[in-house]
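Example (one chain per record):
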Amino acid sequence: MATNITFHPGSVDASERSELLKQKGITIWLTGLSASGKSTIACALEQTLLHQGRFAYRLDGDNVRFGLNKDLGFDEDSRVENIRRIGEVAKLFSDASCFTITAFISPYRVDRKTVRELHEKANLGFVEVFVDAPLSIVEQRDPKGLYKKARAGEIKEFTGISAPYEPPENPEIHIKTGECDVTQAVKAITEYLVSRSYL
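Predicted structure:
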C-alpha cells in the first residue's frame, strides 16, 4: 500500500456540487442470485431516471469484468476484491452526485456491509436492494445456461450451487421478482428515493 500520497481536495465541495447539479448522489446496490433480475431492473431504473432528467449510471457485474476487473476470477478472494473495487467506484460516482446503480451478485454480507460503511463514512447515500428469486426460479430462467453447467460440474464455485449466497438480513428494499414485473420493481425503488428526498 502506498504511503507517500496526500489527498488533494477539489475547489467544489459536495454540497455545492449537489446544488449545482440539483441532485444528491446515492448508490443503489442490487444484490441477488444470477438470473434473479438484477441487470434487467438496473437497466430499466437507469432509463427511468435518465428520462426524468437525472444524472444516472449503471455498473453491471459482467460488464465490469471486461475491463476494470478482468484480472479477477470467481474464487472467494477474487469475489471479495471484485466487490471492494466496485464499492470504491460506486462511491466515486455517488460523490459526483450520480444515481449510481450497481447490479452484482455480491454474495457475502460482510462485503456489502463494508461497501455500505464506505459510503456512510463519506456521508453518501446507500440503499441495498435485495432482488429475491428462489433457486428453483432462477434455474428455470437460466438465460445463459450457467446453472445447467454448474449442476453438471462444468463451472466451479458457482453462487447458489457450489458457492454460498448470503441474503441481506435488513435490506432497504426487498423485491421478489417471482411476484412482480420490472415496472413494479422500478416503481418500488423510485418510491423509496422519493420518500428519502432523492427524487
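Caption: The first strand starts at residue 26 and ends at 31.
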